[in-house]
Every structure is written in structure tokens, then in C-alpha cells.
Amino acid sequence: MSLAQRKVVVLAYPRYQELDFWYPVLRSREEGATVHIVGEATESILGYPVIPDTETVDPAQIALIVAPGVAAGERPLASADQVALVSAVHAAGGLVAAVGNGAEVIDTALPDQNDRIIRADGTDDLAPFFGTIRSTLTQE
């Protein structure tokens, strides 16, 4: 099964961890999903830039939203709008996912929630993490 015809959002915020961000972006595109990067133009831990492609998305149209991790020991600097988008996508029935300390964004948006939330402990878990995302979305 694939993610073809699905819409995915990956959040962009300062000092994102490269693999935590790009793995979901590239794998989702490979599966045929439309991927939107939402946030501010920023740089990764190693200085690689990312430029968001949209400022607004309809939460009801989003199948998946991903909060990537940032440098170890730091907190993700998600904006209030990004946190609100996570909450809105979840409320609309979308799947919410986080890698590493990106889970702090999810915890802020959805305290005490576990339904339709997938978490990866870190970069080493990205392959099974994406497999879980794929199988969850293709069962819906």
C-alpha cells in the first residue's frame, strides 16, 4: 500500500535534525503523497536551509502531520500556529507523528492524548516509524 493521494505536513522550525525532518518528507513523496512544509524559513543543526512551501493548510485535508526532532538537549521552537495546526489536524481525524524531542510539540498541542499519535524515539527508529505510519494510514 502507498500514501498516494494523501496530504502530509512536516513542520519546519529552527535547528531541526536533518534525518528527522527529511526522512518523512522524502519517504512520503516517494509513496505519492503531497507534502507541505509549514513553518518559517530556517536552518538545520548543520546549517542546511529549508523553505516552507505554504503558510496555510486545511487541517481537514491533512492525513498526517510530523513534528521532527531538534538538536539533543534542545527544545523544538514550534510557533503557536504550528502547535494549533497539530491540534486541528488531530481534531479533524488526521494522524500525528513525532520523532525524538519533536514529541514536545505534540505534548504541548495534545496533552494527555495517545489516540492517532505515533512516536519514534529517535533517528535510529525512522524506518519502522515510517512503516507504522504507512500501515496506519493505508488501513483507514
Brief summary:
The protein has 140 residues and is α/β, with parallel strands linked by helices. The chain is 33% helix and 21% strand. It has helices spanning 18-30, 80-91, 103-109, 126-139; strands at residues 7-12, 34-39, 42-43, 49-50, 64-67, 95-99, 117-120.
Task: Describe the structure in your own words.
The protein is 33% helix and 21% strand. The protein is α/β, with parallel strands linked by helices and 140 residues long. The longest helix is centred in the last third of the chain and has 14 residues, at 126-139. The mean pLDDT is 94.
Helix fraction by DSSP (H/I, runs of at least 4): 25-40%
Give a quick account of the main beta sheet: strands, pairing sense, barrel closure: 5 strands, parallel
Secondary-structure element order, N to C: EHEEEEHEHEH
Radius of gyration: 13 Å
Q: Structural class, from helix and strand content?
A: alpha/beta
What spatial order of strands do you see in the largest sheet? 2-1-5-6-7
Task: Considering the chains and any ligands shown, give keywords for the structure.
five-stranded parallel β-sheet; two-stranded antiparallel ribbon; 4 helices; alpha/beta; 21% strand; 33% helix; 140 residues; globular
Task: Summarize the SSE layout with pairings.
Blueprint: E1 7-12, H1 18-30, E2 34-39, E3 42-43, E4 49-50, E5 64-67, H2 80-91, E6 95-99, H3 103-109, E7 117-120, H4 126-139
Parallel strand pairs: 1-2, 1-5, 5-6, 6-7
Antiparallel strand pairs: 3-4
Helix pairs in contact: 2-3
